[in-house]
Design brief:
The mean pLDDT is 97. The protein is globular, with a radius of gyration of 23 Å. It has 3 domains: 3-116, N-utilizing Substance Protein B Homolog, Chain A, CATH 1.10.940; 156-215, 2-Layer Sandwich (Alpha-Beta Plaits), CATH 3.30.70.1170; 218-428, Vaccinia Virus protein VP39 (Rossmann fold, 3-Layer(aba) Sandwich). The termini are far apart. Helix content is 44%, strand content 14%. It has helices at 3-19, 24-34, 40-55, 57-64, 69-80, 84-93, 104-115, 120-124, 131-138, 142-149, 166-172, 206-209, 218-225, 244-252, 272-279, 320-325, 328-346, 368-377, 386-393, 413-416; strands spanning 155-159, 179-180, 187-190, 213-215, 234-237, 258-262, 284-287, 301-307, 349-359, 381-383, 402-403, 409-411, 421-428. The protein is of the alpha/beta class. Strands 5, 6, 7, 8, 9, 10, 11, 12 and 13 form a 9-stranded mixed beta sheet that branches. The protein has a 4-stranded antiparallel beta sheet with strand order 2-3-1-4, covered by helices on one side. Helix 1 (3-19) crosses helix 3, helix 4 (57-64) crosses helix 5 and helix 4 crosses helix 7. The chain binds S-adenosylmethionine.
Length: 430
């Protein structure tokens, strides 16, 4: 395929996503199934166009003065990918599968957009209804933070210290240009590439198959480290899901002690078994809600790790469609889930033990406000400090920019180069 056909395909997919509310991955997959002649390179370019259009949908709409998927894709190619109007025209002329040529109004809109500056929520590519929350957390950094959440994400890996180490992996993965992450001691990073470029398929690497590394954002590695899980401890990973944090906790416990991996949704746990095996983890018992109970763990855990269900505003780089789909009803539901999860998880912490609360959201309602409300409901708990845990877990690594008075920590793409993650530590009174 040439660029003209790829642009047509991207317009078709984005229209499907926006008018029929199809999840973007499904829409891309269906397009691929219906167009088997398209090679993997074509699919990459089409996917990149669609994802970049979604990342910048707010600012493009404001700069163009029009809101339609065709123009969002064309502007991505012309402006974001820097191909220019002439580049677009050349792509159209060279390919009978290309989109319709630009109308005079469309060309004028693209010309005007080149100079136009979006402001506020649109400049940050943040939905307008969430802008007050962004300003509340980030103040004069709100636009920069939103823009960083609208950029492409790197591929981050975590060296699995049960089987390998970062130094070895840096050598093994030199051919994909993996470098060391700056904050997590076990992290490796392959930087995002611009435009049509394709990222390496790291799951095909020998090291992945053998469990030497996991795919895990550096922010996720860091918040797992704030659990300060140590060999020999009793740990409950209360929202274990597919096990991303479970695996990191097991590595920091050097396979000694016990982790109970639980999730209220049985199906979410499905991938964990295979992942534990590949990573060589031997100290995890998976507790499936359908067939086991947690009663005997009550009041007995050194650490209860709560990787709470959340809106995912911190991972917009990886799921840009989710940012425009988020509703105030969904936010209210997640707040309710978080309250329930926290209250339920608290029962398993032993006197003197810790509860670590994590979200991949940057919204204060899901983060510091949720913790403040928890502390008001539970006088058997006091505030611990995620910042103090940071210093203990990551000696020599400077504290992140966003640390509140209680010591809760917020990571963001603009401030730490990671996905957005929040972590708070709660201490059960002895
Ligand atoms: C952010 S995801 C967990 C991701 C996982 N820890 C990882 O690192 O791969 C949140 C999880 O919380 C689970 N969850 C939601 N409500 C819950 C509850 N009341 N009790 C336990 N788990 C719950 C969801 O099923 C979901 O899998």
């Amino acid at each position: 395929m040439k660029d003209g056909g790829r642009l047509s395909a991207a317009i078709e997919v984005l229209t499907e996503v926006e008018t029929r509310h199809r999840p973007v991955q499904l829409a891309l997959r269906d397009w691929g199934t219906a167009h088997r002649f398209a090679g993997s390179g074509d699919r990459t370019v089409i996917g990149n166009l669609v994802f970049d259009a979604l990342r910048h949908r707010g600012s493009l709409t404001e700069r163009l003065g029009r809101d339609d998927p065709r123009m969002a894709v064309i502007a991505t190619y012309v402006l974001t990918w820097d191909q220019g109007i002439d580049g677009f025209k050349a792509a159209v002329e060279a390919d009978r599968h290309a989109p319709e040529p630009l109308s005079a109004e469309e060309e004028a809109a693209l010309e005007a957009a080149r100079e136009a500056q979006a402001t506020g929520a649109a400049a940050a590519d943040v939905p307008a209804w969430l802008w007050p929350s962004f300003e509340a957390v980030f103040a004069d950094q709100a636009v920069a933070e939103g823009q960083a959440l609208a950029a492409r994400a790197p591929i981050d890996l975590r060296a699995n210290t049960l089987k390998s180490d970062r130094e070895k992996l840096l050598k093994k993965l030199a051919h994909v240009s993996a470098g060391a992450t700056p904050l997590s001691p076990n992290g490796l990073r392959i930087f995002a590439k611009p435009g049509a470029a394709r990222m390496p398929h790291v799951q095909a690497e020998e090291g992945y198959q053998k469990g030497w590394f996991e795919l895990q954002d550096e922010g996720s590695q860091l918040v797992a480290a704030l659990g300060l899980a140590r060999p020999g401890q009793q740990v409950l990973d209360f929202c274990a899901g597919g096990g991303g944090k479970t695996l990191a906790l097991a590595a920091s416990m050097e396979n000694k002690g016990q982790i109970f991996a639980y999730d209220a949704e049985r199906l979410r746990l499905a991938p964990i078994h295979e992942r534990l095996k590949r990573a060589g983890v031997r100290n995890v018992q998976v507790r499936d809600p359908a067939s086991s109970r947690l009663d005997e763990l009550e009041g007995a855990m050194d650490l209860v790790f709560v990787d709470a269900p959340c809106t995912g505003t911190g991972v917009w780089r990886r799921r840009p469609d989710s940012k425009w789909k988020l509703t105030d009803k969904a936010l209210a539901d997640r707040l309710d889930d978080q309250r329930k999860v926290l209250d339920a998880a608290a029962a398993y912490v032993k006197p003197g033990g810790r509860l670590v609360y994590v979200t991949c959201s940057v919204l204060p309602q899901e983060n510091s406000e949720q913790i403040t409300a928890f502390l008001e409901r539970h006088d058997d708990f006091g505030a611990g400090s995620a910042a103090a845990a940071w210093s203990a877990a990551l000696p020599g690594v400077a504290l992140p920019r966003y640390v509140n008075e209680r010591g809760d920590v917020l990571l963001t793409p603009a401030s730490t180069g990671t996905d957005g993650f929040f972590a708070a530590v709660l201490q059960r009174r002895a």
